[in-house]
Amino acid sequence: MTLVQLEYLVAVDTHRHFATAAEHCHITQPTLSMQLQKLEEEMGVQLFDRSRVPVRPTEIGHEIIAQARVVLAESRKIQEIVQDQKQELSGELRIGVIPTLAPYLIPLFITGFLEKNPHVRVVVQELMTSQIVEKLNHELLDVGLLVTPLENKTIKELPLFYEAFVAYINSKHPLAQQKAITADQLDLNELWVLNEGHCFRSQVLNICNRGGSMANGQGGHLDYKSGSLETLKRIVETQHGLTLLPELSVLDLAEDKLKLVHGFQEPQPLREVSMVVHRSFLKRKLIEALKQEIISSIPEHIRSRKKEQVVGVV
């Protein structure tokens, strides 16, 4: 049994396809298949059910693959010991970030981080929370930026800041005359929300459950299902009603658009934005540098906010 064979074993489990796994490992499929066959012969067990598409690990295969991941993670720590002795950080950092955070948070820190770490290559993917967790568990990402808590035992959460929700209200709406609103004034007949699958949608509905009406859909003749907060902004501006937005998304609005932004009365509903990693994560110095750069890039009034009323995912 070799570390290389374990790498191939984990690759097949991750991609659930021999050809794709071979491509990921930069070898031919016959080579990968031959090495895994040798591993199975040495162990005297079958690791994969090759009759199924996509390929699936056998019952014992699941247990062996889980241990293989541990062995490989520990072997990489040896490389990190050497890397930690060097003054400059280097390598690749793979970041997954949810869509309601990516366009507003990434621009705040990415330039500064790259300037301070010129030998680091950053790869960013916009993904749903469930996809980020899955990719962390399969070592396809190094770190995720999303909203917590997740209550997932395989993931370690490192809170970064607490971001307030704000209302974006059409200028002709009755609530537009109020500087600050309350949750019990929200009516889902007038509220534009994201498509199902977005954790931000769940958080918005959770706020409404604290006192708002639970009717379904928007009034009028337009029924628009969107996966973009920017689209929801445009709809509110040109049509009617209101939507809820994360605080970072309104920081750079033009003055005429800022008039549509209304905060909540205290205590404001907040969401906890965190960096998440796998419990046995690697690249610790690199990830710590990323964490500090993100925190320093956040406006002071957000960075100094303490945990108060965090709206969880329903």
From TrEMBL:
Q: Which UniProt keywords apply?
A: Activator, DNA-binding, Transcription, Transcription regulation
Top-level lineage group: Bacteria
Q: Which residues form the HTH lysR-type domain?
A: 1-58
GO terms (molecular function) for this protein are: DNA binding; DNA-binding transcription factor activity
| SUPFAM superfamilies xref list | Periplasmic binding protein-like II, Winged helix' DNA-binding domain
Keyword Cell cycle assigned to the entry: answer is no
Cited Pfam families: HTH_1, LysR_substrate
Can you name a GO cellular component term?
protein-DNA complex
The record's similarity note reads: Belongs to the LysR transcriptional regulatory family.
- Name this polypeptide is given: LysR family transcriptional regulator, hydrogen peroxide-inducible genes activator
